[in-house]
Amino acid sequence: MAEALHPADRYGAVARFLHWSMAALILINLALGLLHDWLEDIGFQAMGLHKSLGLTLLVLIVVRIGWRLAHRPPPLPGSMSAKEARLATAVHIALYALMVVMPLSGYIFSSGGKYPLTYFDLFSVPKLPVTRDDMIVDLSHEGHEILGWVMLLAAIGHIAAALRHHLVLRDGMLKRMLG
User: Which among 21, 32, 93, 165 could disulfide-bond with 173, CB atoms 3.0 to 4.6 Å apart, if both were Cys?
Assistant: First the structure.
């Protein structure tokens, strides 16, 4: 088992907070989005919550990207090959892209819908200047559904890789993101 990590080898408190809070919200929102028909069949109106969490995630990813640009992540373990390091970087870029595109596509197609857009029923959220007939609304709707499955697969892959590093390789990778 790897020894305790030096503070420079782990993520800071803000990065850890953003990571874990967004991870939880993304998984909840994926469940709400992918299961919304079933949830509505049993009487739970999921879409209002799904949209509000999506808007929250859109704001959080802007904060997270800003934080990430201003604060370098800890170095990857020296035991990782160059190929593994490139793959890890590519996966992180893909996850960040999905974290931007998913809520943005939802916001676009919700803006073209007939229902008002509210934030947890506390206040109205201005809609983007699009209509239901705009091609961007159709593309956003289709893309949002497809990317929901892509995000789920990416999240499962990310979790599996973290568990591999922690349980099999025992290289301290997961400890970098733990408190």
Answer: 165
Q: Which amino acid is at 161?
A: A
Q: Which one, of 73, 33, 82, 80, lies nearest residue 53 by Cα? A: 33
* Residues 60-79 pLDDT 10s: 999 999 999 999 999 888 88
- Long-range contacts, 128-136 (Cβ 8 Å, 24+): 136/108
Assess contact for 53 and 32: CB atoms under 8 A: yes
* Percent of residues in the chain assigned helix, strand, coil, to nearest 5: 70, 0, 30
Over the stretch 4-43, which tens digit does the pLDDT of each residue have?
A: 667 778 999 999 999 999 999 999 999 999 999 999 999 9
